[in-house]
Design a protein that fits this description.
Elements lengths: L7 E3 L23 E3 L9 H8 L7 E3 L21 E3 L21 E3 L15 H6 L2 E3 L12 H9 L1 H4 L23 H56 L11 E6 L5 H15 L4 E2 L1 H4 L6 H10 L1 E8 L1 H5 L1 H17 L4 E4 L10 H9 L2 E3 L5 H13 L5
Parallel strand pairs: 1-2, 2-3, 3-4, 4-5, 5-6, 7-8, 7-9, 9-10, 10-11
Helix pairs in contact: 8-10
Length: 394
């Protein structure tokens, strides 16, 4: 249509002649003021629709009824700054983007009836556009009557002349036999619902965050423990393989693991070490000497108990008060049961009954103990019994 004098053009039902209107077909019609494209095959691409109208700065009236439009954007009609009447009736529009009509500063009549629009937000039409409109038709859409449409109900009630003459009805799509202006929702109930929703969302978010954080911490700890256990099992396997000689017999790095309280260390150094290592030639495992620096205490205890042929525990009030001694006692009992050995117990000083731990009480009630004596016949008896109970040096 290369005619600069053309002011009115109607090419309704254009799909009969061609599959789609050429986006450049109106380039030669800069003075066109009225354009009817009813039931025509306009381009489906939004950029092509924008191109189709980009050369019509003088257009006052545009009718796109029954054109199968599914969506529009903020740029679709941005070049039609002189447009006063826009008819988009009976298309397939499901929404109107916020600000899609803001560029149409001269718009006075807007027909959106017969589409599938569900919600019209209070940002869809700018304040300037609302003040300029003299007619708006949103009837026969799929309007959802809820809190988000309260503003529209208020606008309709206060600006009834604007909607007068609408060609259809304003029924709620989500409420049977209820129109947009009588649906049972109030501003107060919406405000309360919003506050409740915000409170519930905040509370649920906090709970969810705590759950996720707790789960993340648990997973991280589980991975750490799993790696540690796997590494320990691997080291134990290698160590056990190393502890088997060519004859298939187990070889130990230590003859005796000694579990005692630090406060009783003077007795261990001044008596037990000279007697057992000096006279009997046995190798003692002592925490102050044989634990690896920097290694976790629990790993040191487990490793040294495993590498020792037998175990001696030195009972005293200090032993009863030490949690590490109680842990060593528990591990020692476990290993002795696995190997079918007896746990050698030395009663260094009397322990009040109320200070005895469960493990110590179990040992005293089921095993014969050696009672330490420094002088007299009891000292000789202790020395003889100790030598008989310890393994023979290899």
């Amino acid at each position: 249509f290369n005619n600069s004098a053309l002011q009115y053009l109607s090419i309704s039902m254009f799909h009969v002649y061609t599959s789609e209107i050429d986006p450049d077909c109106f380039k030669g019609c800069p003075n066109l003021t009225k354009l009817d494209l009813i039931q025509s095959s306009i381009p489906t691409s939004d950029s092509k629709v924008q191109q189709l109208f980009s050369t019509l700065p003088s257009l006052h009236r545009l009718d796109l009824s029954l054109c199968g439009l599914r969506n529009i954007s903020n740029r679709t009609f941005s070049s039609l700054t002189s447009l006063r009447t826009l008819i988009l009736s009976n298309n397939r529009l499901s929404s109107i983007p916020d600000g899609a009509m803001d560029a149409l500063s001269q718009l006075r009549e807007l027909y959106l009836d017969g589409n599938q629009i569900a919600v019209v937000s209070d940002r869809t039409f700018s304040d300037a556009l609302r003040r300029g409109l003299v007619y708006l038709d949103l009837s026969d859409n799929q309007l959802v009557c809820n809190c988000s449409m309260l503003w529209f109900r208020t606008w309709f009630v206060t600006q009834q002349p604007l909607f007068a003459g609408s060609r259809g009805s304003y029924l709620c799509a989500n409420l049977i036999h209820t129109d947009m202006f009588n649906f049972p929702v109030s501003q107060q109930s919406c405000m309360f619902s919003r506050q409740v929703y915000v409170a519930m969302f905040a509370e649920s978010s906090t709970v969810l965050f705590c759950l996720v954080a707790g789960l993340a911490i648990a997973v991280r700890r589980l991975r750490r423990v799993t790696r540690r256990v796997a590494l320990r099992d691997l080291l134990n396997m290698r160590r056990l393989q190393h502890m088997i000689n060519n004859d298939g017999e187990q070889v130990f790095d230590y003859d005796v693991f000694v579990s005692y309280a630090e406060e009783d260390g003077h007795w261990v150094r001044n008596y037990l070490m000279p007697e057992v290592e000096g006279c009997l030639g046995l190798r003692l495992c002592l925490h102050f000497r044989d634990f690896h620096p920097g290694r976790p205490i629990l790993d040191n205890i487990e490793d040294c108990v495993e590498r020792s042929q037998t175990m001696v525990v030195v009972f005293s009030p200090h032993f009863a008060a030490s949690r590490w001694c109680q842990l060593e006692l528990s591990l020692g009992l476990h290993h002795c049961m696995e190997r079918g050995q007896d746990l050698l117990t030395i009663y260094l000083t009397d322990v009040p009954l109320h200070d005895l731990t469960t493990g110590m009480a179990a040992v005293l009630s089921s095993c014969t103990c050696l009672c330490w004596a420094e002088h007299g016949p009891e000292a000789a008896t202790f020395r003889t019994s100790l030598r008989a109970a310890l393994p023979v040096a290899q």
